Prior knowledge:
Layout: E1 3-4, H1 7-27, E2 33-38, H2 43-59, E3 62-67, H3 74-86, E4 92-95, H4 105-111, H5 123-131, H6 139-150, E5 159-163, H7 170-178, E6 187-191, H8 198-202, E7 207-210, E8 228-231, E9 235-238, E10 245-248, H9 253-259, E11 262-263, H10 270-288
Parallel strand pairs: 1-11, 2-3, 2-4, 5-6, 5-7, 7-8, 8-11
Antiparallel strand pairs: 9-10
The chain binds guanine.
Amino acid sequence: MTELIDGEEIAADLRSELQAAVDSLAxxxxxxxxxxxxxxxxxxxxxxxAMKQNDCEELGIDARDIELDVDxxxxxxxxxxxxxxxxxxxxxxxxxxxxxxxxxxREVLERIDPMKDVDGFHPENxxxxxxxxxxxxxxxxxxxxxxxxxxGIETEGKDAVVVGRSRIVGKPMANLxxxxxxxxxxxxxxxxxxxxxxxxxxxxxxxxxxxxxxxxFIDGSMLSEGVVVIDVGINRVDADTDKGYELVxxxxxxxxxxxxxAITPVPGGVGPMTRAMLLYNTVKATGLQEx
Length: 291
Ligand code: GUN
């Protein structure tokens, strides 16, 4: 039997644990506060930021919503970041990407106070993760670790194959898998668009994480019996539905389910965990602020 991993349920458990932490921080005089900064007219980015704001409000985390016109100079965004860095009431800062082309995203990431970098994208936080003493783990790979833990899926000694090498998912996921820590100690292979004979590598996986952004890129023929499949993709493809599209993952669900011992659905698998981990990092940030 293939188990469907319910990310919504695991995320809800996590949010109720966080609720207690938020309440106790608020009682002791400092309600956790997250500032989101959006500098994009992209409707998808607007939706993502609105969801993050909603998640915060549901838990009683203060959410500050800062929106900048796309035509503003980069210096305007940097001034906003500087102000948020200096504001003792703000615990976490998240600048939604992508930013406009005239803004260097690398400079943005380096500008955010690493203690408030709840995405975990500042080079100092990336460096700490790679070195094995993470401060903030990036939300998606951290959420995947929590999913596996909640399902009682051991990583130690397993062959983990990560397909995708992005800064947000693939690279940090692989780094977490190789750490000498719970949720780590896996023998880890990173595959990507230039990998020769991908199926040969993916068939070695006990745990497969698909994060390519390519709809249904991995199918059942590329998997071995009993694999645990974690699908990070969320892709809109044209379909004969009311909306004119449907959401599919980076994995072809039906054929992969025939091989997998456990698999995440899309939607309802990794997505809710990513959102919950942002709340987790924001609560953690509150504990890291001075005063
Ligand atoms: N754009 C898409 N995903 C993310 C994310 O996790 N963090 C930020 N800041 N921007 C994003």
